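Justification of resources, computational component.

The compute hours requested in this renewal are based largely on the per-chain cost of generating structure records like the one below. Each record pairs the submitted sequence with a full structure-token output. That output is archived, and it is also reused by downstream analysis tasks.
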Amino acid sequence: MVMFIWAAAAFLIAPPVIFVHNATKGNIGSASDLKMAWHATKRNISELGEISELDHNSSWILTDVIEKDGEKTVVNRILPSRKSIIGENRVTELAILEEMGIESVWITRKHPFIVYLFFAILPMLLLGDPLAYLIR
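The structure output for this chain reads:
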């Protein structure tokens, strides 16, 4: 149980790190970018053609085209849709976005929780149970 507590703490560190990364890269240009900057990174569509096959299965495109009132509209989703997995419909989706004049899209990486469990090993061994410190 202690390992899961430390893993959750490591998991909570990820959003500020991603946000700072986006801020230093200049990916935050408007208030609407703030809702995406804490969990995704902005990439040029031209760069996505160069992504290796390994990365196709570990990323989601969060920028999507929907039809609203008979017109195509670009939206940024916080949660990925089924069709947002890079690889399957990537070419057609990116072509539609390029036709609409979009140069960059928001992409989020899939992080399995086991990664955070590995990050939890060192503080667990060095510091022990964090709840013991709180109870004292």
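The first strand starts at residue 41 and ends at 44. The CA atoms of residues 7 and 116 lie 5 Å apart.
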